[in-house]
Amino acid sequence: MKISCAIVIGSFSLSCADSRDTIKMKGSDTEVNLAVELAEKFYERNPDISIAVSGGGSGLGIASLYNGQADIANSSRPLSDEEVQLFKEKNIELITNVFAEDATAFVVNKDVPLVEIDVPTLAKIMSGEISNWKSITGRDLPINIYGRQSSSGTHSFVQKKLKIKYSKHAKEMNGNAQIMEGIKVDPSGIGYVGAGYLLQKGTNIPTVKSLKIAPEKGQPAISPLDYEAIQNKNYFFQRPLFQFIPKESLAKVKPFIDFEKSPIGKKIISNSGYYNVE
Predict the structure, then answer these.
(1) What is the CATH number of the domain that holds 55?
(2) Which residues in the chain show pLDDT less than 50?
(3) DSSP characters for the chain?
(4) Mean predicted lDDT score pLDDT of the chain
């Protein structure tokens, strides 16, 4: 009997009347747009397998695995030691799939007279040690920081790379879109988003600009949108993107994982502004 299916796009789901083969994928907001694109193309070729994708942050996706509410957790960070222990105590064996590479871009309003920044200065900004643009751009304006909530893998990634604790005045936003909207209207704003998100939306966004990053003062500054630099692993804020899968769900999700690794899947990854892993 042919199964009739319907597409519903909200958090994004592709569902069938018979949902025994439903794949539930939750987690990283960095990965969610890419996951939706992959899910759509997978569903076109596999209409008997329903698939649901939602964001909410890496921490939420990982917690959903632990609670039995997901088959795949998208995560822009590795598991923490505490998470590893929790899964061990519950006897849940996880399979790790690194399916793409991402770069984190730091963005400012188009009116900020700045095109590049070095990591030590950026660390002082994000920690609140530098709280005014005057010493950097000459403009006497307070710096407004737009970041992510603590459940976000990008929040954790940036903090670890900069070796800081965020300023207590940093705004905690729910995702890339909220950060971008804040930066667009705030001439004092600085924040971070996935470079793949920028590329999906178009590189010539008139109200924001991504900064080139130099590891140290006097060193070459590299754009997060420089494909060759990312391929050569020369950009300071680049990282692998993970998918964690309970071993008991592996058979169910294997067709989707194989699709991600296929030529079509790899093309979707690169066209979405992310980078394939070898």
Answers:
(1) 3.40.190.10
(2) 1-11, 15-19, 203-204
(3) -PPPEEEETTTTEEEESS-TT-EEEEE-HHHHHHHHHHHHHHHHH-TTS-EEEEEE-HHHHHHHHHTT--SEEEESSPPPHHHHHHHHHTT--EEEEEEEEEEEEEEEETTS--SEEEHHHHHHHHHTSS-BTHHHHS---B-EEEEE-TT-HHHHHHHHHHTS---TT-EEESSHHHHHHHHHH-TTEEEEEEHHHHHHH-S--TTEEEPEEESSTTSPPB-TT-HHHHHTT--TTEEEEEEEEEGGGHHHHHHHHHHHHSHHHHHHHHHTT-B---
(4) 89
